[in-house]
Design brief:
- The longest helix has 27 residues, at 142-168.
- The chain has a two-stranded antiparallel sheet.
- The relative contact order is 0.15.
- α2 runs parallel beside α6 (142-168) and α4 runs parallel beside α5.
- It contains seven helices and two strands.
- The protein is mainly α.
- The protein has one domain (8-182): Up-down Bundle (Four Helix Bundle (Hemerythrin (Met), subunit A)), CATH 1.20.120.
Amino acid sequence: MVPGRLQVMTGPDLKATLLLYLTRGREALLWKLDGLGEYEIRRPMTPTATSLLGLLKHEAWTETGYFGEVFGRPFPEAPPWEDGGDSDPNADMWATAAETRADITGLARRAWAHADATISALDLDAPGRVPWWPDERNSVTLHQILVHVATEAHRHAGHADIVRELIDGAAGLRSDNSNLPDVAPGYWERHREAVEAAAVAAARQARGPA
C-alpha cells in the first residue's frame, strides 16, 4: 500500500502547508477591502454589526494572542481596550472613526509578521498555553494553534465573502482565482430566481394541501 501524503510529510512540510492556508485566509480578508470607500468597509451588514474592516481587525488581534502570549512571545502592542477605557466586548470587531484603513491594515501586517516569526522559530510540537481557554484543554502545541487559527481565518474570510457580495455584488475566492464559473451575462439573476422558486415550491410542499 502506497502511504498517503500526510504519512510521509515531514514537520517542515506540514508547517509550510499550514502556513500557506493561513496566509491565503489573511490575504482574502485584505482583498475584500479593495475598491471600496471608507463607509463601505466599515458598514455593519448583519444584525451583529459584521463589517469588512472589523473582520480584518479581529483576525489581526486574534493572531497576536495565539502566536504571542500563548507561546511566551507577546506582541509588543497592547490592544486599545486593555487600558480600561473601553468595556465594549466587541471592541476588536469594528473600526472606530479614529482608526483609519491604514491603521487596521498596518496592524494586520505587523501581527502577521509577529505570528510568522513565532511559527518559524518553534517546532510544531512546541508547547503553549491558552489562558482564555478552560484549564482542562488550555495546554496546546504550535501544530494545534496553527490549525485553529488557519480555520478561524478562513471562517472570517467566508464572512467577508458574504458581506462584500451584499455591499456591491463582488464575489470570488481570491484575486487570482475567483472559483466561480464563467457564465453569460444575466446568469446569476436567472440562477437566483430559480433557487428562489425552488425554495417557495419546497415550502408549499412542506405545508401540504391547503
